[in-house]
Amino acid sequence: MQDLPKETTTKHKLVNGKPVPNDMMNEWGYPSSEHLVFVGCETIRNKHTRVDEKTDEKHKVLIVSHINTWKKVNPNEKTATQLKKEKAQPDTPKPKKPSKQELKDECKAMGLKVSGNMSQLQERLDAHYASLPTTDDLSIDDEGNVINPAKEESE
Question: What pTM was estimated for this model as a whole?
């Protein structure tokens, strides 16, 4: 094709052929990813002869039309944008590490040594909690009372 002056247009339509409603467009004039998913694009190139209104001269122009097709988002499915936002903002914040004083206070409450650095205090507490009976160790007798075998051994 020879070098012709080019006019480009972009149109957005839904899968059913209707134009995309204005309430589904974003601030840049494109369909919002919250409402629609891109399906495909069709490009049409046509040569046309235009007449200049001032000089009545005829000249050829290449008209390039991009027709973007969009599909409505299923409200039960999440879009890639929504999934990306959820991944960027986790629902549960990371738990705050306890201070050294909080670890010392907890050790003191459990009757453990309170000297040492934070990792030693944490190891001491972890070992203490690991030695405690779990709910797996408990059982219930015929009368509905909870039986703790570790408690019976110590008595």
Answer: 0.42
